[in-house]
Amino acid sequence: MIESHKFLVTLIFLALISCGAARDLRNVTEPKTPETCASLKATGGDDTKVIQKALDSCTKGKAVALSSGTFYSGPLTIPSGVNLLVDEGVTLKALTDPSLYDLGAKTCGTLNEFGVGCKAFITIHGAKSSGIYGKGTIDGQANVTMVGKNKTWWELSNDALVAGNYQNNPMLVQINDSADITVYQITLINSPFYTLTGYETNGWTVWGITILAPTTARNTDGVDPIGCQNVTIAHCYISMGDDNVAIKALTGPSRHISVLNNHFDEGRGISIGSEIPHGVSDVYVANVTLNGSVNGIHIKSNTYRGGHVRDITYDNLCVYRAQHPIYLEMDYVHLHGNRTPEFRRITINNMKALKKGEYIIYGLSESNPVQVTLNNVHVAKGSAFLERFANITGKFIIDSTSEDRCGYAGIH
Ligand SMILES: *[C@@H]1O[C@H](CO)[C@@H](O)[C@H](O)[C@H]1NC(C)=O
Ligand SMILES: *[C@@H]1O[C@H](CO)[C@@H](O)[C@H](O)[C@H]1NC(C)=O
Ligand SMILES: *[C@@H]1O[C@H](CO)[C@@H](O)[C@H](O)[C@H]1NC(C)=O
Ligand SMILES: *[C@@H]1O[C@H](CO)[C@@H](O)[C@H](O)[C@H]1NC(C)=O
Ligand SMILES: *[C@@H]1O[C@H](CO)[C@@H](O)[C@H](O)[C@H]1NC(C)=O
Ligand SMILES: *[C@@H]1O[C@H](CO)[C@@H](O)[C@H](O)[C@H]1NC(C)=O
Ligand SMILES: *[C@@H]1O[C@H](CO)[C@@H](O)[C@H](O)[C@H]1NC(C)=O
Ligand SMILES: *[C@@H]1O[C@H](CO)[C@@H](O)[C@H](O)[C@H]1NC(C)=O
C-alpha cells in the first residue's frame, strides 16, 4: 500500500514537473504600466523627431507617453530599458511614405524576389526591459494610399500574389535580439505586414492587447515569436488576415511558449511553422476560443523546412467554426528538400469544435508519422477525417453540435 502510494506521488510529481516545463518558465503576472518620463501632445504634423528624441532621452524604466491627439510618425526605435505609452483615446499613425522605411536599396514599397527592403514602424533591437503600453492605438495605415504611389500597402501585397513574388512592406512592430520585453493593452491595427514579431528574444510578455485588420489583408500575422524563449501571449483579441499566432524557428529554436486565455476571430489560427528548421518545443496553449479562423490548431512543415516539433500541449480550446479545426501536416504546400521534420508528443486535451470541419493529420512516412494524443476532443457530426501516417492515441468524439456553447476565454 505504502509503496504504491509513494509510486503514485512520484508519478504525479513527475507529471507536474513535465507539465510545468512545457510552457513559459517565468512566473508571468499582469504587467504594470511604468511611470512616465515625458508626456507629448500631437502637433498634427510629422512628430517623428519629437517622439524619437523623447525616447532617446527617457530615463531607463520609464515611459514616453503620447497623451493627446493623433500623432503621425515615420519609423521609431525604442531604446533599451525605455517604454512607449500610448494613452487611451490617442492614436499613433505610421506615415505612408515608403522612402521613410527604406533600408537602403530603394525597394521599400515595391515588389521583388526578397521582400526585405523595409524597416519596421517600431523597432526594439538589442534591448532589455523595454515595452509598449497603454490603451491607445498604433495604426499602420496599410489601408491608406502610399505617398508617391497609387495604391495602399495591402494592394501591393495583393499585387505580389498575382506577380508571384514578394511585397516590401514594413512590419508594424519588430523586436530583435532582446530580453524582458512587454507589450500590454495596446491596440495594433492595419499593419502593412506582420503585426507584432519577435526574433531571438528571451522573456517576452504580450498581455491584453488587441490586433485588428481585415481578413483580406495578406501577411498581417498577429503575434509571431521567431526563435524566442519564455514567451507568454495572454488575454489578447486577434482578428486579421493571416496566422493569429505563428511560432517559428528560423535562426534558433522557439521554446517555452504559453498562449493563454485568448480570443481569436478572423485569421488562420494558432500556427507552428512552417519556417522551423531549428525546432519548436514546450508550447502550452490553453483556454483559447476561435471564431472564424480558417484553421484552429495548425502545425506545418515539410522536407524543405524540416524542424522537430515536440511537447506541444493544447488544453481547453473551443472552435466555433473553422474549415480545419486541427491541421497537422508534414508536407505543407508540397515543398521538398533534404530536411526531416518530426512532429512528436502533440497532445490535445479538452477541445470542442462546434461546426463540422475537415481534420487533417498527414505524417511524412510509415516510420515518421505525426504522433498525437487526443483526450476528450469533441467534434461535430459530418466532419471529415483525413489521415496519412498518423500515430493517434485516443480518438475523436463525434458528438458536438452548433447549439453547444464555448464559454469565453477570459480576455482583457
Ligand atoms: C527562461 O526562464 C527561466 C525562469 O526564469 C530561466 O531560468 C531561463 O534562463 C530562461 N530562458 C532563457 C533562454 O532566457
Ligand atoms: C515560480 O513560482 C513558484 C511558486 O511560487 C516558485 O517555486 C518558482 O521558483 C518560481 N519560478 C521562477 C522562475 O521564479
Ligand atoms: C483605414 O482604417 C481606419 C481604421 O480601421 C479607418 O478609420 C479609415 O477610414 C480607413 N481609411 C481608408 C482610406 O480606408
Ligand atoms: C490610380 O488608380 C486608379 C484605379 O485604381 C486609376 O483610375 C487612376 O488612373 C490611377 N492614377 C494614376 C496616376 O496612375
Ligand atoms: C531582425 O532579425 C531578422 C531575422 O534575423 C533580420 O532579418 C533583420 O535584419 C533584423 N532586424 C534588425 C533591425 O536587426
Ligand atoms: C483556464 O481557465 C480556467 C477557468 O477560467 C482557469 O481556472 C485556469 O487557470 C485557466 N488556465 C490557465 C493556464 O490560465
Ligand atoms: C462569431 O463570429 C460571428 C460572425 O462574425 C459573430 O456573429 C458572432 O457573434 C461571433 N461569436 C463570438 C462568441 O465571438
Ligand atoms: C506511436 O506512438 C506511440 C506513443 O504514443 C509509440 O509508442 C509508438 O512507437 C509510435 N509508433 C510509431 C510507428 O511511431
Automatic annotation (TrEMBL):
Keywords: Glycosidase, Hydrolase, Signal. It holds the Pfam family Glyco_hydro_28. InterPro entries: GH28_Enzymes, Glyco_hydro_28, PbH1, Pectin_lyas_fold, Pectin_lyase_fold/virulence. PROSITE patterns: PROKAR_LIPOPROTEIN. It comes from the Eukaryota. One of its GO terms (biological process) is carbohydrate metabolic process. GO terms for molecular function: polygalacturonase activity. Residues 1-22 form the signal peptide. Coiled coil: none annotated. Belongs to the glycosyl hydrolase 28 family. This is Glycoside hydrolase family 28. It comes from Medauroidea extradentata.
